Amino acid sequence: MSWVSIEREKCEECGLCSSVCVRCFSKKDERTEAFANEDNCNLCGHCVAICPTQAIVHHRMDMKAFIDLDDRDKIEKEPFLKFLQRRRTHRNFLAKEISREVMETLFDACRLAPTGSNVQNVEILILRDRKKIEKLIDLTVDYYRKLMPRVEKKVERFKMGGKPIPPDLQWAWDRSRRYVTLLKILDSGGDPIFRGAHTILIFHSTPHTSTPKDNSVIAAHTLALTAMTMGLETCYIGLFEAAYKNHPPVAKELNLPAGHEVFSVLVLGYPKFKFLRAVDRRPLKVAWA
Ligand SMILES: Cc1cc2nc3c(=O)[nH]c(=O)nc-3n(C[C@H](O)[C@H](O)[C@H](O)COP(=O)(O)O)c2cc1C
After folding, report:
1. For the segment 230-289, what is each residue's pLDDT rounded down to a tens digit?
2. How many domains does the chain have?
3. Domain boundaries, position 192
4. Which residue among 83, 182, 235 has the greatest number of ligand 1 atoms within 8 angstroms of its CB, and so is best to mutate?
5. What is the rounded distance in angstroms from the CA atom of residue 67 to the CA atom of residue 59?
6. Measured in angstroms, how far is the CA atom of residue 241 from the centroid of ligand 1?
7. Can you tell me the distance from the alpha carbon of 269 to that of 113, in angstroms, rounded to the nearest whole number?
8. Has residue 144 been placed in a domain?
């Protein structure tokens, strides 16, 4: 049986369902037929969302979720661009706790983010346990502490052999000198990794799925932008992601579900400071072919 049925008394044969989904709908003798199943339907819900007469019923989806949308809620271009201009990475947070209710709203917004093939399998691990966070900071800094001499040794070998340094090693070398700052911050009692934030969000999923990295980053950014509307700010933490991938003790301490990997990391909190100005950014290089 098809996962989708068409209520004939409501259907006006406008053809919108088959226009938005060629995989699950086709026309036979001037009549639209639905044949959605596990081979062709990815539960995107487009067919139900587009039908002007509510003639489509999806039996694998919660029909109550298909609430009417109103053009009055539409965000205008100028306020939206200003909102994007206001987004900043924050690295200083207040100790103020984020309520469960606020967190639930953020997770709800995250569900709305698109995923490749609509797999919807991004998960979030919320770190709030101070002891665990401190352990992860130490392990992450430890990774960078060990990385610096390793990179330096490799560079020396190339230099002594009179060979040009390969671009990836040059990049690692340029970066690794910056890691000295991490050690300095840690030694002076600061948190160079999670920036003192009390809430850390680890976006993870199995790697054996459609576009896991993209899914996680889009989910994270959806959450980050939603957070701004509630007075919260964020910072992505690529430093932790790299340590997780390359330093097994970090992965062991994080203890994700078996087979899962980290694809994006955000810290979240009420900001200590307010940016007063927008910032300069290079023009985007765009080619028209
Ligand atoms: C994928 C990604 C990873 C990042 N990782 C870190 C990080 O580990 N630590 C940090 O302090 N900032 C990190 N940042 C923040 C960037 O440094 C910041 O976005 C950049 O300087 C531009 O500033 P803006 O976000 O205010 O525009 C990261 C940003 C992105 C997009």
Report:
1. 999 999 999 999 999 999 999 999 999 999 999 999 999 999 999 999 999 999 999 999
2. 2
3. 83-289
4. 235
5. 16
6. 12
7. 21
8. yes
**Residue 45: which CATH number?**
3.30.70.20
Does the beta carbon of 237 lie inside 6 Å of ligand 1? yes
pTM of the model: 0.95
Residue 184 lies in a domain: yes
Atom of ligand 1 nearest to the CA of 240: 8
In a domain? residue 230: yes
Of residues 228, 277, 267, the one with CA closest to residue 91? 267
241 in a domain, yes or no? yes
